[in-house]
Design a protein that fits this description.
Number of domains: 2
Mean pLDDT: 89
Oligomer: single chain
Helix content: 25-40%
Radius of gyration: 18 Å
CATH topology of the largest domain: Rossmann fold
Shape: globular
Number of strands: 15
Structural class: alpha/beta
CATH architecture of the largest domain: 3-Layer(aba) Sandwich
Largest sheet: 7 strands, mixed
Order of helices and strands: EEHEEEHEEHEHEEHEHEEEHEHH
Low-confidence stretches: none
CATH superfamily of the largest domain: Nucleotide-binding domain of ferredoxin-NADP reductase (FNR) module
Number of helices: 9
Distance between the termini: 29 Å
Length: 267
């Protein structure tokens, strides 16, 4: 259990691993996440499940090295074991046939977007995916996203892949030419903030999958609290997905930056 079966690199600091986890593979749904721990004194790291193979009993996780704990996880090789792997956690995505879904992912946010886009496509929706990154190396899982999308728009800051511009530019182009019934946005909090502001102006219902700081993942510690619709919610048990138009993104961004200096020091 919890043995790493394969490992591949999207870039120097972004790794995809496949882990032996048969119980989680059978139970997981789009939108679910796991909490991973490396070493007996390691901290708990929440990671959204990118994919699962119930027959083989495996799950796929995409990890970005941003601090000491993710560095340890990225350093594991095929055959090594993850100390702890708990899940599936969180509420799964509510998937139904709504019409046209605008699936928007930035950077490593494309990884959790993939199973959600797959599920909405399987439910009979038209899926237009907008994926973005700083440059070509930061746009991941392009082929997999194309396989479950009716159309894919790629935006990069430097124009090295797709069109030059922000993810909101690609979203605006899609919204201008066709009716969008639902938007899903996953990525850096600042990206989700502006994506949500865009869809609000067009009165498009929008789901945001939040990446709040998390410790236990069961709603006990309160570290992942966010304000949604003026009320405190816990990302781990009430989310990770919320009505994007009700999320206090400024508060979320401030909380996410609270431990950045400590993370940098441990790298």
């Amino acid at each position: 259990m919890n043995r790493i079966l394969s490992k591949s690199y999207f870039s120097e600091r972004v790794v995809k691993i496949e882990v032996d986890a048969p119980l989680i593979a059978r139970a997981r749904r789009p939108g679910n996440f796991v909490i991973v721990r490396v070493g007996e004194r390691g901290e708990r790291v929440p990671l959204t499940i990118t994919g699962a193979d119930a027959r083989r009993g495996t799950i796929a996780l995409v990890v970005q090295e941003v601090g000491a704990s993710t560095r340890k996880l990225c350093a594991l090789e095929v055959g090594d074991h993850v100390t702890d792997l708990v899940g599936p956690l969180g509420k799964p995505t509510r998937v139904e046939r709504v019409g046209t879904v605008l699936a928007c992912g930035g950077g490593v946010g494309i990884a959790p977007l993939l199973p959600i886009a797959e599920a909405f496509k399987a439910a009979g929706n038209r899926v237009v995916s907008v994926i973005a990154g700083r440059g070509r190396a930061f746009v991941i899982l392009e082929e997999e996203i194309r396989a479950c999308s009716d159309e894919v728009i790629i935006m990069t800051d430097d124009g090295s892949l797709g069109q030059q511009g922000l993810i909101t530019d690609g979203m605006a182009a899609a919204i201008a030419r066709e009716r969008v019934d639902l938007a899903v946005t996953i990525g850096p909090a600042v990206m989700m903030k502006f994506a949500s502001a865009l869809t609000r102006r067009h009165d498009i219902p929008t789901i945001a999958s939040l990446n709040a700081l998390m410790v236990d993942g069961t709603g006990m510690c309160g570290a992942c609290r966010v304000t949604v619709g003026g009320k405190t919610r816990f990302t781990c048990v009430d989310g990770p997905e919320f009505n994007a138009h009700e999320v206090d993104f400024d508060e979320l961004i401030a909380r996410l930056g609270g431990l950045r200096d400590e993370e940098i020091k441990k790298l």
